[in-house]
From TrEMBL:
Its main location: Golgi. Residues 1-27 form the signal peptide. The keyword Metal-binding does not apply. The keyword Cell membrane does not apply. It comes from Arabidopsis thaliana (Mouse-ear cress). This is SREBP regulating gene protein. GO terms for cellular component: Golgi membrane. Belongs to the SPRING family. InterPro entries: SPRING1 (IPR019352).
Length: 273
């Protein structure tokens, strides 16, 4: 091959490579995607446990150094050591984790809550900011300035404008109490003992309220508060159609119920004591 012919062939190859190479680069750029790197915000209060903004709790040593996230293992949005009724927990990190659950705290409500009492205080910007702030110790959970009302002093209720929860009187008196629903005929002592706990008889009367019982009982109809010597009583679900709506004593010594239940046809059957 002559020198001129070789030069022409070389130029043609260069031209062909210059034409193909950009297309190949373009194809690579379109086909290859990059996953968004995981990154978390975390609590800083605890010495041993950490909660991230995804609702995970882990010990400080297992926190991923690059992402600052807890490993994806275990229960997310854990309410371990929490009283769902009072929305208070005995651990700061699990309080934050439980609070982050969308079923417990909604963003549209959080952004309306003030960080502190003064009128000039701003509002929370995210659910994590709200949970991390609310779950810290606060003056409302302290008695005599150096002790807590209960070990459940990490609270995330929406009802207070302070950094802690403004519990109702009933909720406050139930702090530290686990409500266990037993079967009909079981005694309070037997049910609690089966869970490794003790029955607190003087707290049972606090549970005789519709708002409280609705949290624990599977109520099919409406709930109306009742009072009188014939209480407590409960209305069972399989009510005969020929009976009027009534309420007769049915105390089973496990979970006293002080309600009338309205069924769709306004009739109900109650268990005999």
């Amino acid at each position: 091959m002559s020198k001129s012919g070789f030069s022409l062939l070389f130029l043609a190859l260069l031209h062909l490579m210059g034409f193909l190479f950009p297309l190949r680069v373009s194809a690579i750029r379109k086909d290859i995607g990059f996953l968004e790197e995981r990154s978390c915000r975390t609590t800083v209060q605890g010495r041993y446990l950490i909660s991230d903004d995804e609702g995970n709790v882990c010990d400080a040593l297992s926190l991923e150094s690059r992402t600052r996230c807890c490993p994806w293992k275990g229960e997310r949005f854990s309410c371990h050591g929490c009283n769902i009724l009072s929305q208070c927990c005995n651990s700061y990190e699990f309080c934050v984790s439980c609070c982050l659950n969308p079923s417990q705290t909604l963003l549209e409500k959080v952004v309306k809550v003030k960080v502190a009492k003064p009128a000039t205080s701003g509002t929370y910007k995210s659910v994590f900011d709200f949970c991390a702030g609310r779950c810290r110790h606060n003056s409302e959970s302290v008695v005599h300035e150096n002790a807590y009302h209960s070990e459940f002093h990490h609270c995330f209720s929406l009802t207070s404008n302070a950094s802690g929860a403004n519990l109702t009187q009933v909720e406050t008196r139930l702090l530290g109490i686990d409500v266990i629903v037993g079967s009909q005929g079981d005694s309070c002592d037997a049910v609690c003992k089966s869970r490794g706990q003790l029955c607190v008889m003087n707290k049972l009367s606090l549970l005789n309220q519709c708002d409280v019982m609705k949290r624990y009982m599977n109520c099919k109809g409406s709930c109306l508060a009742s009072a009188g010597a014939d209480q407590p009583a409960e209305v069972v679900e399989d009510a005969p159609r020929d009976l009027a709506r009534v309420c007769i004593p049915g105390h089973n010594h496990c979970f006293p119920v002080t309600v009338h239940t309205n069924t769709p046809d306004d009739s109900a059957h109650v268990p005999r004591s």
